[in-house]
Amino acid sequence: MATESRWPPHPLAARVNHLRARGGHEHSRVTYVELFYDLVFVFAITQLSHGLLAHLSPLGALQTAVLMLAVWWAWIDTAWITNWLDPERTAVRLMLFALMLAGLVLSASIPKAFEERALAFALSYAAMQVGRSLFMLWALRNHDAGNFRNFIRIILWQTIAALLWIAGAFAQGPLRLALWAVAVAFETSAPVLGFWVPRLGRSATTDWTVEGGHMAERCGLFVIIALGESALVTGATFAGLSWTAEHIGAFLVAFAGSVAMWVIYFNIGAERASRLIASSDDPGRLARSGYTYLHILIVVGIIVAAVGDDLTLHHPSGRNDIKTAAVLIGGPALYLLGNMLFKRLSAPNLPLSHLVGLGMLALLIPAAAITTPLLLSSATTAVLIVVAAWESISLRNSPHGRAR
After folding, report:
1. Fewer CB near the terminus (10 Å): N or C of the chain?
2. What are the angstrom distances between the C-alpha of 143 and each of 23, 148, 174?
3. Tell me, what's the pLDDT at 87?
4. Are the C-beta atoms of 250 and 312 separated by less than 8 Å?
5. Sorting pLDDT into bands at 50, 70 and 90, what band is 29?
């Protein structure tokens, strides 16, 4: 619940309260402008998957990971903002439109972020992070003293990270990667450390007034975005190929894998976690752990799996090299790992189906060298289907909907 400011009203801060109304029986709905904002990240995820596909090497994977984390923080930080602010307010909508513009520049810069568009990427990202927090300070100054203090801490951390991003843009080669890796590690560790600042201390998760149902829905929609991007890439690639039996088979396997991923996330975990966070005494802790952090693994798993689908579509009957095997097995493994840890937040144990699935994927590693991409992709998709079916049967047999 918002608290009145302990400071005298500031003439340069918002006079009108821009916070969402709380206290109803229904959770705050995701608004159309939030969905409109998310369209930018369909483009961003496409750029990330294409970038990884074009630079499928340890260095390329590391660079993509750094850029992926930046994209994630640009999105999830906005999700937190719209959890607090009312997007129906004109000022909030204008802020989201400004973030969309910066996000488009950010996304367009991704393919050459480690080349000539480094400064465009760094400046657009810094503008999104710092600009968003400045807006929050303006909106909260006269209306929510506790969260205003939180954002004083947050903007100090984000300003330091922004300077590292911009410094990295002026650096070259390994130094740029090192500075950007430090910047993204700095931002990734900040919520866990409570945005600790000397004299101001740290934020407690109990201070973060979170509308749990809204946060759960926002992150579920982002998973839909990532899965949708995977389907778009698969369809676009298939459209440009000759429709041989092998290509049709690879297309069907990729589609089945996407459906299995959808079932694994939405059949049990998403709704159960939504109920848990909505009724929690400390929703901020659950939102930070389950949505801010664990969803990173889920989204990365989808992106890596999409790269594997593309490789399979182009070379279904070739031989698996190390890179192909890594993405074909690694994508589903990251996805299952992220879902397993996420579901553990709302269940007494790790879901056995996911543990078995991860074990089955591990058993496929030795076979990768003697199979084709289509066979390996079919095997990893079969594992996802087994996990999805296991959970579905478990849900029907359990009155509490607990995966076993």
Report:
1. N
2. 17, 8, 45
3. 92
4. yes
5. confident
226 & 119 share domain? no
Same domain for 350 and 246: yes
Question: For residue range 243-267, what is the model confidence (pLDDT) as tens digits?
Answer: 999 999 999 999 999 999 999 999 8
- pLDDT tens for each residue of 227-239: 998 888 899 999 9
Q: Please give the structure tokens belonging to residue 121.
A: 């990427």
**What is residue 180's predicted lDDT score, i.e. its pLDDT?**
98
Q: What angle do CA 108, 113, 115 make, to 5 degrees?
A: 125
- Euclidean distance between CA atoms 216 and 194, whole angstroms: 21
Provide the residue range defining the domain that includes 167.
Answer: 32-203
Q: Does residue 18 lie in a domain region? A: no
Give the domain-ending residue among 166, 183, 203: 203
- Distances, alpha carbon 318 to alpha carbons 212, 312, 366, 375, in Å: 47, 9, 17, 10
CA 101 to chain centre: 19
pLDDT tens per residue, range 368-395:
989 999 999 999 999 999 999 998 887 6
Examine the fold and report which residue of 203, 226, 251 is the final residue of a domain before the chain moves on. Answer: 203
Query: Quick one: 166 and 198 in the same domain?
Result: yes
Q: Is residue 186 situated within a structural domain?
A: yes
pLDDT in tens, 71-95: 999 999 999 999 999 999 999 999 9
Q: Which residue has the tokens 């954002």?
A: 151
Q: What percent of the chain has pLDDT over 70?
A: 91
In-domain check, residue 16:
no
Those residues whose C-beta lies under 8 Å from the C-beta of residue 284, and which sit 6 or more positions away, are 204, 205, 206, 207, 208, 209, 210
CB 255 within 8 A of CB 234: yes
Are residues 327 and 227 part of one domain? yes
Are the C-beta atoms of 230 and 253 separated by less than 8 Å? no
Q: Is residue 6 part of a domain?
A: no
Same structural domain for residues 365 and 258? Answer: yes
Q: How far is CA 235 from the centre of its chain?
A: 23
Strand ranges inside 97-179, DSSP E:
none
Is the separation of the CB atoms in 295 and 219 below 8 Å?
yes
AA identity, residue 248: I
- Asked if residues 352 and 404 have their Cβ atoms less than 8 Å apart, the reply is yes
